[in-house]
């Protein structure tokens, strides 16, 4: 996996581009409203000072009514300023909420596009799972948080500048009082922000593992086995052990942070209250009015809060930037298998067939080959079968035929055209696979079938024919809403199917795609003998004028194949027709006779 280092400025630039691209108008409006709000604190504080001084004048005035009108006018102006600030704040909150919803959807779509286009080998990599977990947990929200934090810092900065100008009319040293009161606290938080980031890095795998244990205890697929084998306490104890370790390590950091912050707050309190004492002294000796005292008190407190918030904002910027680096790393993972934009299409129809030549492959981080020097000839319109023990490389070979992985050596040819040169989109259009671990879509039956060719208009006639070929048509008609019946228990009114019925539906999906090459990985593993016999009796008709590959553990089912390959320990050890392999009296013959003996006995 290629990992790229990104600086803070690069992370910020990328974050801003993402947010700005989501909605330019909302981003600009967010900034403008935030900027406008930065001037309200000074205006309000100064108006309150004027009101207090005006009230003082009223008490000494002979024309109280005229003086009170002046006070009332100031109160109305102050109320209007409060109202404008509240309206600006409400609009800004609406803008941010709307932008947040749009940005979350944009990020989710971006992650979907990346995840569905990434090489499958990354899913075999622990480092990938750690990185993706960090992206899902934190990095999606961080770009918008970073931009909002920056706007908050800008707002605080301009508000502080106006307040500092006001406070420096009192004494030039007030700025340094505020700085002395807030900077140490910001440095402490910056330090522990880095510590929390390191903690998060160190606990990612433990957190993922604890989530896995939680999933085992709460997930529907495991409910029966957890109860049958009384696994609750065993898994729960592992879950609690991990969560306790994660929690304790975090509490340890937080405890140290709180202690250090408390010490720093002592110095902050001394600085602020020293300034309060100085302002009070000037008021007592008559150099300041009561209104001025209140104004400076409020300005000092507001300035302290804003300065602290601004410095904390820089801490959050730094923290968000660290997490955004995960997003950048994930989005910049480079595929080893480059998508072919070649104009070479899969020949239609195949004339010579498929040749696998000296093919070898090893999974990432594995110490042994999954395939070693595989050679194979698949004639056009023939049905070939691949049999062998678990782990012999059968399914891996299919993954390479589908171009999910790139071989370490050797090549695959379709009518003498290298697979690597065939246009990817055309290849996907012309290869249909029923995987051993097929998906049970909790959608309608119609969708479960037409997903085999979802990029085209629905062909009702082909859909019905595919259901009939897979032996699931009668079942569909017996359900309350026919092809519009929702399947599974995730949504209201869903109908649950048996494992065998789900497999028939997956088979119908493969038939609906109507591809040149059909690959069936254990296509009848969940079917009863009668249904299995029906499908294989019709298989030659179902795959007429098509090239097909069957992977199976059941030696009795592969007799229909024109040619059979036997795999063992990532290599082909035998090949031939069913009759030829029986005559060789090798592994195929032994396994066929062994399975047959169970039926005879």
Q: What does the model show?
A:
The chain is α/β, with parallel strands linked by helices. It has 2 domains: 321 residues, ABC transporter type 1, transmembrane domain (ABC transporter transmembrane region fold), CATH 1.20.1560; 248 residues, P-loop containing nucleotide triphosphate hydrolases (Rossmann fold, 3-Layer(aba) Sandwich). It has 19 helices and 10 strands. It has a 6-stranded mixed β-sheet, with helices on both faces. Strands 2-1-4-5 form a 4-stranded antiparallel β-sheet, with helices on one face. Helix 2 packs antiparallel against helix 4. The longest helix is centred in the middle third of the chain and has 53 residues. The two termini are 54 Å apart. 30% of the residues are buried.
Roughly what percent helix? Answer: 55-70%
Here the CATH topology of the largest domain equals ABC transporter transmembrane region fold
- What is the number of strand segments? 10
- Name given to the CATH architecture of the largest domain: Up-down Bundle
The run of helices and strands is HHHHHHHHHHEEEHEEHEHHHHEHEEEHH
The CATH class label of the largest domain is Mainly Alpha
Treating each run of at least 4 consecutive H or I residues as one helix, how many helices? Answer: 19
Query: Shape, please?
Result: elongated
Counting structural domains, the number is 2
Estimate the strand proportion: 5-15%
Instruction: For the largest sheet, list the strands in their spatial order.
Output: 6-7-8-3-9-10
Mean pLDDT across residues: 83
| SS class | alpha/beta
Largest sheet: 6 strands, mixed
First CA to last CA: what distance? 54 Å
Low-confidence stretches: 1-6
By CATH's scheme, which homologous superfamily of the largest domain applies? ABC transporter type 1, transmembrane domain
CA-atom Rg in angstroms: 36 Å
């Amino acid at each position: 996996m290629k990992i790229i280092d990104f600086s803070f400025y690069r992370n910020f630039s990328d974050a801003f581009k993402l947010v700005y691209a989501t909605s330019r108008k909302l981003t600009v409006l967010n900034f403008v409203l935030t900027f406008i709000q930065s001037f309200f604190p000074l205006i309000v504080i100064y108006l309150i000072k004027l009101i207090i001084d005006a009230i003082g004048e009223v008490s000494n005035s002979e024309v109280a009514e005229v003086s009170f009108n002046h006070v009332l006018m100031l109160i109305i102006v102050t109320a209007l300023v409060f109202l404008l600030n509240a309206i600006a704040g409400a609009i800004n909150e609406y803008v941010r909420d709307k932008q947040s919803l749009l940005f979350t959807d944009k990020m989710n779509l971006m992650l979907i596009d990346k995840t569905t286009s990434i090489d499958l080998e990354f899913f075999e990599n622990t480092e990938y799972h750690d990185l993706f977990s960090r992206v899902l947990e934190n990095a999606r929200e961080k770009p918008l948080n970073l931009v909002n934090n920056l706007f908050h810092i800008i707002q605080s900065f301009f508000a502080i500048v106006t307040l500092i100008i006001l406070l420096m009319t009192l004494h030039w040293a007030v700025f340094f009082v505020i700085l002395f009161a807030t900077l140490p606290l910001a440095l402490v938080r910056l330090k522990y922000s880095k510590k929390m980031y390191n903690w998060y890095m160190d606990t990612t795998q433990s957190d993922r593992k604890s989530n896995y244990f939680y999933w085992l205890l709460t997930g529907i697929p495991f409910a029966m086995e957890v109860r049958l084998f009384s696994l609750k306490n065993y898994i729960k104890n592992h879950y609690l052990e991990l969560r306790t370790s994660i929690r304790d390590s975090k509490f340890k950091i937080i405890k140290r942070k709180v202690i250090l912050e408390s010490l720093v707050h002592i110095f902050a309190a001394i600085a602020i209250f020293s300034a309060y004492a100085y302002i009070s002294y000037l008021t007592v000796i008559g150099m300041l009015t009561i209104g001025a005292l209140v104004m400076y008190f409020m300005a000092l407190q507001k300035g302290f809060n804003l300065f602290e918030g601004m410095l904390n904002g820089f801490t959050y910027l730094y923290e968000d930037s660290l997490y955004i680096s995960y997003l950048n790393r994930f989005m910049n993972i480079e595929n080893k298998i480059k998508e072919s934009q070649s104009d070479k299409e899969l020949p239609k129809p195949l004339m010579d067939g498929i040749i696998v030549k000296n093919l070898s492959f090893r999974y990432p981080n594995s110490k042994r080959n999954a395939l070693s020097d595989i050679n194979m000839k698949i004639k056009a319109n023939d049905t070939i079968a691949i049999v062998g023990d678990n782990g012999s490389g059968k399914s891996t070979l299919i993954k390479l035929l589908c171009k999910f992985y790139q071989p370490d050596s050797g090549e695959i040819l379709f009518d003498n055209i290298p697979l690597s040169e065939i246009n990817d989109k055309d290849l996907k259009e012309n290869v249909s696979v029923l995987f051993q671990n097929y998906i049970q879509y909790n959608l309608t039956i119609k969708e479960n079938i037409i997903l085999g060719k979802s990029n085209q208009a629905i062909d009702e006639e082909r859909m019905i024919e595919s259901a009939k070929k897979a032996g699931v048509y009668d079942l569909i008609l017996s359900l309350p809403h026919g092809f519009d019946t929702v399947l599974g228990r995730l949504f209201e009114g869903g109908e649950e199917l048996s494992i065998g019925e789900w497999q028939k539906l997956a088979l119908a999906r493969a038939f609906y795609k109507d591809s040149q090459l059909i690959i069936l990985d254990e296509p009848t593993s969940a079917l009863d003998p009668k249904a299995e016999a029906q499908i294989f009796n019709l298989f030659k008709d179902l795959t007429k004028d098509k090239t097909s590959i069957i992977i199976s553990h059941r030696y009795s089912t592969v007799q229909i194949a024109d040619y059979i390959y036997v795999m063992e320990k990532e290599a082909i050890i035998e090949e031939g027709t069913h009759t030829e392999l029986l005559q060789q009296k090798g592994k195929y013959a032994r396994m066929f006779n062994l399975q047959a003996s169970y039926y005879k006995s």
